[in-house]
Amino acid sequence: MHIVFAIRAAAIALSLAGGASLFEAPALAQEDGKKAVATFAGGCFWSIEKAFDGKPGVISAVSGFMGGKTKNPTYAEVVSGGTGHLESVQVTYDPTQISYDKLLDIFWHDIDPTDPAGQFCDYGSQYQTAIFAHDPLQKAAAEASKEDVAKELKTTVATEIRDASDFTAAGDEHQDFAKKSPGHYNSYLIGCRRDARLKAVWGEKAHAKI
């Protein structure tokens, strides 16, 4: 765990240091006819952002923090586990091109929903998994999908369904990290054995395709 944390810290240090860059009030799920918002916590936000980035209908995927008790937390504060935030990704999407159900499918197949302590090599409350619902329809869809996952995997699903709260974007050094620093991201990925665990949980369904 300490080795992987060091890999992460070293990778971040190669970019400009900085804390959270943006504070936003909870977004409405449906802002207009062609723009909607969804938020997911799946461990390290670098990987969850990558899972959504570039998918048809996804307008943007922003790494940040949600679910905590303080405003404008820095990355260092969140990873210390003291703020109550989860590393999260806020997805803005066009619901005429991709459905919320499809976003849920992408999310589930890029996490280990059976682990209550964190994800892969990242442990602590800040790395727990959650779906943050922005309205009652999202909440109902998330709860239904969680039941489906529990039936498919035949085990308890640790992922929580929560109401969306204030979202704080992480610093620029965390945005598009897998694209901007592929070598360092891959070192982190291999060190965490993320793909191996996903395949063990989901088999060929890991990393949902659309």
Quick summary:
With 210 residues, the chain is an alpha+beta fold. It has helices at 2-13, 45-52, 75-79, 100-108, 136-153, 177-180, 182-192, 194-202; strands spanning 22-24, 30-32, 35-42, 58-66, 86-93, 118-119, 122-123, 129-133, 160-163, 167-169.
Protein traits:
210 residues; alpha+beta; Peptide Methionine Sulfoxide Reductase, Chain A; eight-stranded mixed beta sheet; two-stranded antiparallel sheet; 8 helices; 36% helix; disordered N terminus
Q: Describe it for me?
A:
By secondary structure, this protein is of the alpha+beta class. The chain has one domain: Peptide Methionine Sulfoxide Reductase, Chain A. Helices cover 36% and strands 22% of the residues. The protein has eight helices and ten strands. Strands 1, 2, 3, 4, 5, 8, 9 and 10 form an eight-stranded mixed sheet that branches. Strands 6-7 form a two-stranded antiparallel ribbon. Strand 8, helix 5 and strand 9 form a beta-alpha-beta unit. Helix 1 packs antiparallel against helix 7 and helix 4 packs parallel to helix 5. It is globular and about 35 Å long. The N and C termini lie far apart (33 Å).
